[in-house]
Each structure stands twice: as structure tokens, then as C-alpha cells.
Amino acid sequence: FYRFLAFFGFVVFVRFILYHFYYTFPKFGIRELGDGAPIGQLFGTLNAVVVIILAPIVGALTQKFTAYKSVIIGTTIAALSVFLMAVNPALFRPLADGPFGSLIAWWLNLDLAGQPLNPLFPAIVLAVFIYSIGEAFYSPRLYEYPAAIAPKGQEGSYMALSMLPYFFAKFLVGPLSGILLALYCPAEGPRNSQMIWVWVGGMALITPIGLLLARRYIQVREAGRE
């Protein structure tokens, strides 16, 4: 039971990403991209489509993987994806000026009025797309793992406790979001918005690194797997 709690204690940190997309990303996007930026499409639509399509495919291809291993793989991908928004957006200028940028402008129905596409758009799209791939790996397995390791007759209790990372992440990200926005992406004044995602990605990496380093101590044999 305590190893189960330790597992989900580590998972809290990767859940920060999702809630930062809910709380921090809208303000960040509007302040960096301007009023009217299609923030909802940039995350909500793309994330939902990618996860819906990939989750069953990834599940079928990783049937022989333990849930623990799939969570490590998925959380690593998800955590690293955030750093695409932590680098200088100018690095994505070639993508913004090419066919990829044109596709983004068409998808989002952007009226550029002859102006070049902000390179932050392809950075965000790639970050969300890669994050969604990671989520397709780990999110379904977070429900499988407690059911697989629970003592007989306690599956329901373990499944209910597996929701704890959501509540802890939501509780912590609210105030943290305000602090990061005030420090690095204020409504007025100088900004260093990339640092927001350095912090978010750094905290999210605690999940896969912690699960990997503590594997021999907290991993539990999963029912149905040798």
C-alpha cells in the first residue's frame, strides 16, 4: 500500500503539466501571441484528437509492457515536450515560414495580413503534439496499475485513491501558476516567458526520474504479468 502511494506521489509532478495547460497557458498565450489568439484550439482540440487516436494504438502495441514501464516512458515524453516552449522561439522561425507554418495558419484560421507567423505557434503545436503522445502512453496505464496491484477485494479502493494526483496537482498548480506568470510573463513590463516552461518541465521530470530510480523499492508485481 505504501509503495502504491509512493508511485502516485511521483505521478503528481507530471500531472502539473496538464493543469498548467489549463491555468497558466491561456494567460501566457494571450500575452505572448496577442488578444484573440486561438488558445483553446492550440491545446484542447489538438490534445484531444491526438490522445483519442493514439491511446488505443499505443495500448495495442504495448500490451506486453508493464503499466509501470509504460508510465515511465509516457511521462518522460510528456515532461520533455514542455521544453520546446522553453527555448528561444526564434529557433522555430524556419518552421513558421515554411509549409508547417502555413498549415498552422490554415488550421487556426489566422489572418496574418501579410505578416510572418509568430514562431511561437509551431513551438506550441509541437509541444502539445508530443505531450499528447506521452499522455497516450501513461494516462490509461494510471488506471490499470492500481487495479493490477490491488489485493483481491480492494480494487475499488485502490482505483479511487489513484485519483489523488489530480487533486494534489490542482491544489498546487493554482497558486504556482500565478507566481510564475507574475515573475516571468506579467501583463506589462519585461518578460522571460520561457522560464515558466523550464520550471514546469523540470518539475515534471521528477516523475520519470523518481519512478526509475525508486523502481526496485516501489514497483509491485502486476496481476496477469510474469
Our estimate of the beta-strand percent is under 5%
Which structural class matches the secondary elements? mainly alpha
DSSP helical segment count: 11
Q: Could you estimate the helical fraction of the residues in percent?
A: over 70%
Categorize the overall geometry. globular
- Biggest sheet statistics: none
DSSP strand tally: 0
Average pLDDT, to the nearest integer? 88
Distance between the termini: 20 Å
Q: What are the secondary-structure elements, in order, as H or E?
A: HHHHHHHHHHH
Q: What Rg is obtained from the alpha carbons, in whole angstroms?
A: 19 Å
Uncertain residue segments: none
What report would you give on this structure?
- The chain has 226 residues and is mainly alpha-helical.
- The protein is built from eleven helices and no strands.
- Helix 3 packs antiparallel against helix 9 and helix 6 packs antiparallel against helix 7.
- The chain is globular and about 65 Å long.
Secondary structure layout:
Blueprint: H1 2-33, H2 39-61, H3 67-81, H4 93-97, H5 99-108, H6 120-149, H7 155-161, H8 164-184, H9 194-204, H10 206-213, H11 215-218
Helix pairs in contact: 1-8, 1-9, 1-10, 2-6, 3-6, 3-9, 3-10, 6-7
Task: Give a quick rundown of the structure.
Helix content is 73%, strand content 0%. The protein is built from 11 helices and no strands.
